Each structure stands twice: as C-alpha cells, then as structure tokens.
C-alpha cells in the first residue's frame, strides 16, 4: 500500500509529481497536482465544489457555539469564534452532469476555514472523544487500504455530521496510471464507502493531489461531482501555506491526516489536531462544515 511517508515532501512517483513542491509549499504526504503532461497543475480555483451525502449536522447541536469554555480548556485550547450560519445560497454548486470541477477554497467573505482529514490509517479512540466534545466539523477523505481494518471507527465521527468522501482504494499517484486503473481506484472506493457508510461520496481527493484529464473522466464515471484540493496543510505543530505571507484566507481548505505517533515523531493525533485548531484560532478564524457551503446536484 502506498502511503504518506513524509511530512514535508511530495511523493516522487514521477518527476511531474515531485515538481509540485515548486508550485506550492503544500508538499505534505498528499502533495500537489499535475496535469496530463506530468507538469505541475496551477492551484485550482473555486469554479465548483463539494457536497456529500452524509448527515449535514449533528442532531440537536449547533456545533462549536454550544461547547463550554471549560471543555475547550480541557483540551488545552481557547474557544473558537462562534461559526456563522451556513449561507442560504451556497456559493459552490455542483451539477449532475458535465465537467468535474476542481477547487481548493470556497468563495466567501466569512472568516471560516474548512478542515479535511485524509486516509484513515490512525484510529485513535481519544480523537473520537475529542470530536464529540468539541464538535469541530471535518470532512473525511478515506482510502480503503487504510480503513479496511476497522470501518466502524469512522462511524461515530460520521454520526456527528461529518461527511465521508472518496480517496481511492490503494492511494496511487493518479496521473501515473491509465484510465482503466484510475476508474477502478475511484469506483472501487466509491462502492465500499457507500456500502459501509450508507451514502455515496460526492467529493474526490486525488492522492498527493496528482490528477490529469483521465482522473476527471474516472471521477465523472464513478459518481463524485468535484475534485478537492487544499490551500494549507497541517504538519505536527504548524501549517504549510500556499500564500507567501503564510496567512489563512476566508474559505481556505486545510489538509490534515489521520496520523499517529509513528508518523508524527511521537505526537498523537489529538495533539496534532489541537495544534491545528490553535493556528486557526490565532488568526481569528473558525471552522465551518465544507458541505454546508456546497449545493449538491438537485
């Protein structure tokens, strides 16, 4: 199984994928994207966006606004600002047919960012407890090789309203394999995630961020309606930024991973996630649910 082995480098399956480090300082385990010629792809614009068929909000809850300060302090955190109400007119609208859009942020003036968690290798029970108490929304891009040892781990996170999205069966660099294999990777993960979690993913994240025109065709054939990139990536204590001023922007999508001490130099998943929330809070942002800003095809 190909997995994220480095915390600050792009997977170097091809020169095109490795060259992505020059495109953006997002070069973490998932890396950046490359076009059909193997050249670095520019960071995608918000010409389209995601939605997922999972519960859109925890029953009877209003997210982090309802979390007492004492609970934040228990996890060594300051309270995040209360999240704004989701926009009635969602800024990104998906279509049932036609070209699959690629996006790395959501167009909004609200001081919100969106947290995404990839793969699913680390299954720390303490992280579930943390999420139940803090109610921070996340979007999970799950890869079957990483989650098949315990599909059930992610169901309590899903029950909190967090959506489960597609991240392939085996985590290949998609732009290095033919269309038939790309289709197997996307459709295979789509089938398993739909069976295990009861809803079909509407978003796809290519491993290492690498995709080409064949990837878009495979995604279109298998069911997801958008490809999701990112603007920042979380390491252990700090984020890597695409913007030269190393600041968050409204609507940015942040990449993190289900990782534990073996990949985080002894740091736990909850410690890494707490560091991520600190970096967000320090800049005056809060976390919103990605799918609340995306209109699914009607």
TrEMBL record:
Region named Disordered: 31-65
SUPFAM superfamilies from the UniProt entry: Glycoside hydrolase/deacetylase (SSF88713)
Residues in the signal sequence: 1-36
InterPro entries: Glyco_hydro/deAcase_b/a-brl, NODB_dom, Polysacc_deacetylase_ArnD
One GO biological process term: carbohydrate metabolic process
Annotated NodB homology domain residues: 111-288
GO molecular function: hydrolase activity, acting on carbon-nitrogen (but not peptide) bonds
Biased composition annotated in UniProt, kind: Low complexity: 36-59
Superkingdom of the organism of origin: Bacteria
Classification via Pfam families: Polysacc_deac_1
Protein name: Putative polysaccharide/chitin/xylan deacetylase
